[in-house]
Amino acid sequence: MQVGQAKQKKSRYQRLLQDHPLCCLCGGATKSSTVDHIPPQACFPKGYFPEEFEFPACEACNGSSKKEDQIFGYYMQMGNPDLFTKDLWSMWKLQDGINNNYRTALLNTRLSNQAKTEALIKMGIQVPPDADLTNLPLAGASDEFFEAAKVIGRKLACAIYYRETGGKFLTRKHYIWTSIVHGRHPRASMLTDYLNRMLPEKEEGIRRNIKEYGRRFGYRYGYKEKEDFMISACQFGIGFICLTSSGLLEKGSKSIPSEELLTIFPTPDERAAATARAENSIAAEPTQSA
Fold first, then answer.
1. How far is residue 232's CA from residue 244's CA, in Å, rounded to a whole number?
2. What CA–CA distance (Å, rounded) separates 173 from 92?
3. Could you tell me which of 163, 152, 154 has the C-alpha nearest to residue 56?
4. On the CB side of 203, how many CA atoms lie within 13 Å of its CA?
């Protein structure tokens, strides 16, 4: 990046923080001191991050998802079958980083015949008992990916809510629910058709300096102001779709299982405190004699 471009970027970030002095990820409870890219920059080749998806954040909220940013971005790039928007160099470079730092998060490209059969059955596809699926290009996602998708989904929920409500915050009075599905799943077309009918508003990411930007990122959303309820569906190319829902906790808790209710994005201190509580709880449990 040239010196002039760096100064322009710094100036743009300074203006954003001046206009948005509170973190949009922790309910406006903390002063914003950094600019967070949501969705993560790792979801796109260098230079292709969509414009106007930079958000005010405190250092804790911004910095606590570095691992999840990389893992989520790796899957978004690997999982997008659109050859027009693929960048093999960016994808391989990101994969090298995941392999070096979070190896267990890599795609499992060596699924057994039995594992492929079970996956297809879950998709509603019947497989003959003697079918040889050796050459079927099916890969398995890691548990780390689903954890990363949950974290990034929460960030997306906060950011889109902030963007589309004119600067309102999701707070600890709200729940956030997230889920993720691949666009090539046999049942995904039913979901996308339903969302296209249900969610009236549509936003599509662009970069004005790139003429042929392609369908790299976009989302649909719907918001009921009286109920303070929002649903969004974010699509990465023609690959993964990240679904989010948010609303007032006391209302949402009546219809969503308690274990799926997620409050506002936690700070590193809160995450560490939760881990310590869990460890203390395990240590305090009485041991049983043989």
1. 5
2. 41
3. 163
4. 15
